[in-house]
């Protein structure tokens, strides 16, 4: 398995968890957030290889809470940076990471009441950042 620095691991993790936060904030509500978080966690634990290792170990990342605009401004570039890191250090893991993040985002969006227009917009931005 590729050796990533602590900073690189943190970037991958912050981006993936940030995506889930963006989806959750697009459909506010405490119960929705719980359902969405549980659904996303299932996607992360179901990931393979390095993606699973990074996304299921260590502390949760710190994100600028209560400000989805700031989170989006941080998370979308972090997704792009994460793919760049993996392309250099672990090219065979790019698809695993991309699949885990997309699966978590999709599961979170579907978890509470189906995908609403705000969540669909977030999913489109995430897909674009991971393209």
From TrEMBL:
Superkingdom of this protein's organism: Bacteria
Protein name, entry field: Tellurite resistance protein TerB
């Amino acid at each position: 398995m590729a050796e990533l620095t602590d900073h690189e691991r943190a970037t991958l993790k912050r981006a993936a968890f940030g995506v889930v936060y963006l989806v959750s904030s697009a459909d506010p509500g405490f119960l929705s957030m719980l359902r969405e978080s549980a659904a996303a966690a299932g996607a992360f634990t179901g990931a393979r290889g390095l993606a699973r290792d990074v996304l299921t170990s260590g502390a949760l990342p710190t994100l600028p809470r209560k400000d989805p605009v700031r989170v989006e401004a941080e998370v979308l570039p972090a997704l792009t940076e994460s793919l760049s890191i993996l392309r250099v250090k672990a090219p065979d893991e790019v698809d695993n990471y991309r699949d885990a993040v997309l699966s978590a985002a999709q599961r979170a969006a579907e978890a509470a009441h189906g995908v609403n227009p705000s969540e669909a917009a977030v999913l489109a931005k995430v897909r674009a950042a991971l393209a």
